[in-house]
């Protein structure tokens, strides 16, 4: 297929573009930042550019991973977020319908699912970790989440109105940078990322693989939304204890983790405030992340 990949110069683009090419697809990269993976340097907020790109390249599928992200909040006005994340998505959807694009994959974020209440550790009025599935009604806490949720609504509307097959992937954290609250976290960056694989992280390789799966399944699914995160060992009944004493819960599932963490000089989060349940992706998309917390422990064991 001839695929338009937005955000081709970004971190996800670096994992996705070669994977798609290896499968025999022809990739046209569109990004404001020039790179070897980007054929067209420009913004998705440029409506004429988007339509021209889709039409002249006879695009058959769009993977829309380009966006302004949470770290950009400090540097851009709200209107720029709307122009890029909402109007940009609308431009791509309109071009897809006008040019007969056969499938559309939208990279969304689990971040839009986290309200201020959930972040404070309260769920249903009680102090416990939030168990998050695609069935919840999100209440985004910042402009990034608001614009990504608005873009999701546009994707659903264009499927209903025009029959465009669209798959929305709410990806958990896979960015390589340190957490934007790293100054308040006691663990090293590697330690933090390992911990997060229990409940809110995946590798960029798994993120890319999920997009390939979504691209393949989009016509059959019609429209669907999936949380994409490393499989969690936890269950909903763990949520109260996760917020109160996360290390005890982790030790119950992984009895060898305390020994391995002590040897590495690592520690577990004292409290976990949310768990992303990716079981819907397994059941309906047929996708499961390859890398999990168990793989981290196996690597630590092998270091001996």
Automatic annotation (TrEMBL):
CDD domains referenced in this protein's UniProt entry, alphabetically: SDR_e (cd08946)
Species, as recorded: Mesorhizobium hawassense
Protein name listed in UniProt: NAD(P)-dependent oxidoreductase
Gene3D superfamilies hit by this protein: NAD(P)-binding Rossmann-like Domain
SUPFAM superfamilies assigned: NAD(P)-binding Rossmann-fold domains
Pfam families given in the database record: Epimerase
Coiled-coil ranges (or none): none
Boundaries of every NAD-dependent epimerase/dehydratase domain copy: 3-217
């Amino acid at each position: 297929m001839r695929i338009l990949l937005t955000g081709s110069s970004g971190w996800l683009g670096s994992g996705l573009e070669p994977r798609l090419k290896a499968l025999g697809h022809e990739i046209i990269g569109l990004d404001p930042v020039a790179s070897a993976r980007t054929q067209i340097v420009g913004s998705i907020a440029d409506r004429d550019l988007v339509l021209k790109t889709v039409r002249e390249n006879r695009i058959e599928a769009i993977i829309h991973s380009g966006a302004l992200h949470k770290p950009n909040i400090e540097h851009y006005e709200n209107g720029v977020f709307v122009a890029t994340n909402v109007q940009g998505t609308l431009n791509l959807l309109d071009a897809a319908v006008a040019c007969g694009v056969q499938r559309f994959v939208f990279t969304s974020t689990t971040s839009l699912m986290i309200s201020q209440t959930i972040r404070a550790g309260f769920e249903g009025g009680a102090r416990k970790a939030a168990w998050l599935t695609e069935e919840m009604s999100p209440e985004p806490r910042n402009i990034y989440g608001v614009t990504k949720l608005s873009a999701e609504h546009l994707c659903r509307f264009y499927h209903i109105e025009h029959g465009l097959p669209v798959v929305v992937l709410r990806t958990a954290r896979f960015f390589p940078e340190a957490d934007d609250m790293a100054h308040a976290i006691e663990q090293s960056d590697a330690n933090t990322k390992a911990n997060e694989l229990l409940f809110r992280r995946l590798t960029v390789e798994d993120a890319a693989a999920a997009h390939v799966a979504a691209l393949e399944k989009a016509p059959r699914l019609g429209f669907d939304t999936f949380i994409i995160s490393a499989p969690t060992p936890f269950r909903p009944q763990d949520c109260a204890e996760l917020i109160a004493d996360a290390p005890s819960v982790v030790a119950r599932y992984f009895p060898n983790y305390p020994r391995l963490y002590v040897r590495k000089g690592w520690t577990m989060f004292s409290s976990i405030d949310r768990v992303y349940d990716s079981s819907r992706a397994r059941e309906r998309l047929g996708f499961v992340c390859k890398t999990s917390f168990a793989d981290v422990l196996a690597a630590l064991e092998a270091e001996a």
